[in-house]
Write a structure and sequence with these properties.
single chain, 228 residues, alpha/beta, five-stranded parallel beta sheet, 5 strands, 11% strand, globular, disordered N terminus
């Protein structure tokens, strides 16, 4: 009986080492099979996506993650949005965000603060185009979110500002959410006192605005992973 009691643990240890070695070998030979379970959606925006003035878990980005979970979409949402961010600031910090999170999809939601500051549209366009190029180089698809600014800035600025997002989407062939908070500013009860940021009650509407444009991208991304 003594040889069996001594040899049994040794056999078990050898078996565990063999299994561990096989796992490492499979990971090296078939890396895509392991990567299929890791899909990342990076939301890269400003206060509209950073849950400004409300609890973080009430924001539309968290609601989007909940919808993905409910629909069993294997995506993790990373919210890299910063209140007050301009396209210039976003362009400066995007490379680090792409390197850190390695997203499959980037929802790019910037430009509102540029408009509120009256930044020339050619600068905003340049920055957004640069960010789309960076995402493309990193292997991430982009969903561009458009926005509007209050009408008191005058039609000579507000009209071309709004049109700019559609022009960029067409030039770069990326999908567009025409107006992230569409249908919300017209309902005063859904806006915070500043008249710019939606309330917690409006966040589900933002998710609804995003979803029809995002969902096809999710399916396309998952199909692409399966074919690899």
């Amino acid at each position: 009986m003594l040889p069996m009691s001594v040899g049994q643990p040794l056999l078990s240890r050898n078996l565990l080492l063999l299994l561990a070695g096989l796992a490492v070998l499979l990971a090296l030979v078939c890396p895509h099979s392991f990567a299929q379970d890791r899909n990342t959606l990076l939301v890269f925006g400003d206060s509209l996506s950073a849950a400004y003035g409300i609890k973080e878990n009430e924001g539309w980005v968290v609601l989007l993650q909940n919808r993905l979970n409910d629909g069993q979409y294997p995506f993790t949402v990373i919210n890299a949005s910063v209140s007050g961010e301009t396209s210039t600031g976003g362009l400066a910090r995007l490379p680090a965000a792409l390197k850190s999170h390695q997203p499959d999809i980037v929802l790019l939601e910037l430009g509102g603060n540029d408009g509120l500051r009256g930044i020339p549209l050619n600068i905003l366009k340049h920055n957004l185009l640069q960010m789309i190029d960076l995402c493309d180089s990193a292997g991430a698809e982009v969903l561009l979110a458009g926005t509007q600014i209050p009408p008191n800035y005058g039609p000579r600025y507000t009209v071309p500002f709004f049109r700019l997002f559609g022009e960029i989407a067409q030039e770069t062939d990326v999908p567009l959410v025409p107006f992230l908070i569409d249908g919300i500013p017209q309902q005063p009860g859904l806006m915070q006192d500043d008249g710019i940021h939606p309330t917690a009650a409006a966040q589900a509407m933002i998710t609804d605005n995003v979803w029809p444009h995002l969902e096809p991208m999710l399916h396309r991304e998952l199909r692409g992973k399966k074919s690899q």
